[in-house]
Design a protein that fits this description.
It contains 16 helices and 16 strands. By secondary structure, it is an alpha+beta fold. The chain has four domains: 4-149, no CATH class; 165-216, SH3 type barrels; 224-304, Alpha-Beta Plaits, CATH 3.30.70; 327-466, Jelly Rolls (Sandwich). A hairpin with a 3-residue loop joins strand 7 and strand 8 (272-281). Helix 3 (67-96) packs antiparallel against helix 4 (102-127) and helix 8 packs across helix 9 (287-304).
Length: 484
């Protein structure tokens, strides 16, 4: 006979389960402690409710003759095991795991799967009185068959566990897995997801990653290697090439001084020798910019040393009878941006008016606040430009072959706003002020180019000074902290 009070109590148990789901989804995920306490409270209340109604999760239904009550009580007892399994998973996750980490997510899911498996077996044995031993034996046989059929997937799963445990890389790291290079955006049970430099998604199974060579460019976080490779004719003596490449490395301010850059022979052949210039930077975001700058500087310093890339000889190569007769001065005027407004005849004449000046390393070419009587073009070597920030000299830039200095004195009789000092042995080509005055009067474009260069360098100087941190005068509470 249908027992109305007991039926109502059992229905109230279903309502309590619905309330648990509603509260769980409405409570913000960031309030982990609150969600966990609410779930524990609802489990205890649910347990008290079904026990008060005469239902035990450790026994079958007490109403085998009443179909409605038997069905409701059996379902509630089974649901109690699932409710308890879910609550235990939540409690353990809140105590030991951080859901935001991919490794924690993986282990939390594995732990939850194990707890729910135990809950299913317990519900089948205690509530439904099924033969657990036979069920486990059947499940074991099915697990063997499924394991053979899904061995590739299981290999990815266990490889994912190993990767999340050893952590060779994490999300947002920039890595290379075999020949695939990109940024890690996700690590799940089956695969690692990369965004490549082409903007495409690469999905690599974890079993392949576990057996592959992995390069993590994001670790350590404060030092990252960069390198460029170049091929030069085997007829050129390697010492000349290495010296030019080392000067190119010295001309790059982004390379860390704590880990000196080096140039070396990488491989050699009958026609060409491959060289590598390698250094270190502080941020991986600078990698492309620094590599491009290194390539440009390497080309300029090799050219300054009389070495041309892609040629079977060390000279300038066949570029026409007229250009073959050009000397170093004429080539610099041809490549320099500020001299492009001059005609070919004017550049030929100006090259003859240049005077060679050799300076050793450490020599100050132009002092701060000095009025220069010459416009100087760097032929070979590296020159450091330093500005004064009110307390000391700070390096603002490094200059290489083809760049000019002393434009303030030539244009407006102005004082130099920086100190220019040779970092390496340098050869400079100077043009005196009287000679330049005639070229400045003949064309406004040449003067405009020098003015543009002067304005650009003033902007760089101001931006560096604005980046200087403001010193905080220690007083009051700060002074007390310092003396405490």
């Amino acid at each position: 006979m249908l027992d109305i009070p007991q039926l109502c109590t059992l229905i109230a148990g279903f309502a309590l389960l619905a309330a648990d789901l509603l509260v769980w989804h409405l409570t913000p995920a960031v309030r982990i402690l609150r969600r966990t306490l609410v779930r524990i409270t609802l489990l205890l209340l649910f347990s008290w409710l079904i026990i008060a109604a005469g239902v035990s999760p450790l026994q079958p239904s007490p109403w085998p003759d009443d179909v409605a009550l038997n069905m409701l009580s059996t379902v509630l007892a089974v649901l109690w095991w699932f409710f308890a399994a879910r609550t235990l998973t939540v409690v353990l996750s809140a105590m030991f795991f951080n859901r935001g980490e991919h490794a924690a997510r993986l282990f939390q899911d594995i732990l939850g799967a194990g707890i729910f498996l135990v809950a299913i077996v317990a519900a089948a044995g205690y509530v439904m009185q099924l033969p657990v031993k036979g069920l486990l034996a059947t499940s074991g046989g099915m697990a063997i068959v499924a394991g053979l059929a899904l061995r590739s997937t299981l290999s990815d799963l266990f490889s994912g566990i190993v990767l999340n445990t050893t952590k060779p890389y994490q999300v947002d790291d920039y890595v290379q897995i075999d020949s695939i290079e990109g940024k890690v955006v996700d690590i799940d049970w089956r695969a690692t997801h990369l965004i490549t430099s082409h903007g495409s998604m690469a999905v690599i199974p974890n079993s392949i990653v576990a057996n592959a060579k992995v390069l993590n460019f994001s670790r350590p976080v404060d030092i990252h290697g960069v390198s460029i490779t170049l091929q030069v004719s085997a007829h050129v003596r390697p010492g000349r090439v290495i010296e030019a490449l080392e000067r190119a490395c010295q001309g790059t301010r982004q390379l860390l001084a704590s880990h000196p850059a080096k140039a070396s022979v990488k491989s050699s052949g009958a026609e060409f020798i491959e060289y590598e210039a390698r250094g270190f930077i502080a941020s991986l975001s600078q990698r492309t910019e620094v590599c491009n700058h290194l390539f440009d500087l390497a080309h300029r310093h090799l050219e300054a040393a009389g070495i041309q890339l892609g040629s079977s000889a060390g000279g300038a190569g066949a570029q026409g009878s007229e250009t073959q007769r050009w000397n170093r001065q004429r080539w610099l005027l041809e490549d320099g941006k500020i001299f492009r407004s001059l005609s070919t005849i004017q550049r030929d004449q100006l090259a003859q008016d240049m005077r060679v000046m050799e300076c050793p390393a450490g020599h100050v070419v132009l002092e701060l606040a000095e009025v220069s009587d010459f416009l100087m073009v760097i032929s070979t070597g590296v020159v450091s430009a330093s500005i004064h920030d009110g307390e000391r000299l700070i390096e603002a830039a490094r200059m290489g072959p083809g760049e000019v200095l002393g434009e303030e004195g030539v244009l407006t009789e102005g004082r130099s706003r920086a100190q220019f000092r040779c970092l390496t042995g340098c050869v400079l080509l100077r043009i005196d002020k009287a000679t330049l005055r005639g070229y400045l009067e003949q064309g406004d474009e040449f003067k405009a180019a020098l003015n543009k260069l002067q304005v650009f360098r003033q902007g760089v100087r101001q931006s560096l000074l604005l980046q200087k941190p403001v010193e905080i005068k220690k007083g009051g509470f700060l002074r007390w902290l310092k003396s405490a």
